[in-house]
Specification:
This protein has 52 residues and is mostly helical. The chain has helices at residues 2-23, 37-49. It is flat, with a radius of gyration of 15 Å.
């Protein structure tokens, strides 16, 4: 089905993106854009604070 093929393509794309991020030691953090900018940014800043 078209829906199934699309889902497989999207999953493959994100898996490839995650692997490239790991290869270059880049944090890959999926976010829900419906949560709002403040909540996403706060979670990011808290995670970065651990590295300081």
């Amino acid at each position: 089905s078209v829906k199934g093929d699309y889902k497989i393509s999207v999953d493959n794309y994100f898996n490839s993106l995650k692997m490239k991020c790991m290869q270059y030691k880049i944090d890959y953090v999926p976010v829900d854009i419906n949560k709002g900018f403040e909540q996403v940014l706060t979670a990011y800043l808290i995670s970065r604070k651990k590295f300081l």
